């Protein structure tokens, strides 16, 4: 039986494609004063995810446990190289402990995982726009 897969077992030539010294990232969660409707089509994280994806910004979202560990919440991660990322988004609050740049601090495992997911999202978006069909996840 094989061991579980993690990013440490993945290899890529991403680092040869671009100098990552100028990479920046930001993480956002739903604003504390925003009342979340049962209808997830009005979820501010998902709305902003689709908005930034349309602008070809590297982005990904995920579910995380809240600070009290009782509920889950969504996070939106944005990545950029040689560009400024927005400091605020409508109905979202920045998570200051999950913001940074490559030159300031190395990528944490969470940040690398979200970058990998954002790259996957961008590749998938491009392939779908060229007529490729999605077979599965």
TrEMBL record:
Keywords: Nucleus, Repressor, Transcription, Transcription regulation
Gene Ontology BP term (one): positive regulation of transcription by RNA polymerase II
Entry GO MF terms: transcription coactivator activity
Localization (cell): Nucleus
GO cellular component: mediator complex
Chief location of this protein within or outside the cell: nucleus
Stretches of the chain forming a coiled coil according to its record: none
Superkingdom classification of source: Eukaryota
Protein family (similarity comment): Belongs to the Mediator complex subunit 13 family.
Protein name per UniProt: Mediator of RNA polymerase II transcription subunit 13
Lineage: Eukaryota, Metazoa, Spiralia, Gnathifera, Rotifera
């Amino acid at each position: 039986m094989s061991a579980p897969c993690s990013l440490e077992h993945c290899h890529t030539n991403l680092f040869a494609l671009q100098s990552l010294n100028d990479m920046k990232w930001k993480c956002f969660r739903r604003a504390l004063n925003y009342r979340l409707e049962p209808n997830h089509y009005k979820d501010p994280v998902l709305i902003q995810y689709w908005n930034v994806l349309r602008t070809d910004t590297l982005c990904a979202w995920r579910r995380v446990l809240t600070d009290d560990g009782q509920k889950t919440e969504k996070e939106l991660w944005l990545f950029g190289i040689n560009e400024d990322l927005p400091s605020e988004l409508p109905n979202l609050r920045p998570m200051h402990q999950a913001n940074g740049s490559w030159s300031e601090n190395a990528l944490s495992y969470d940040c690398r995982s979200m970058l990998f997911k954002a790259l996957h999202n961008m590749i998938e978006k491009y392939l779908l726009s060229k007529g490729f069909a999605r077979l599965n996840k």
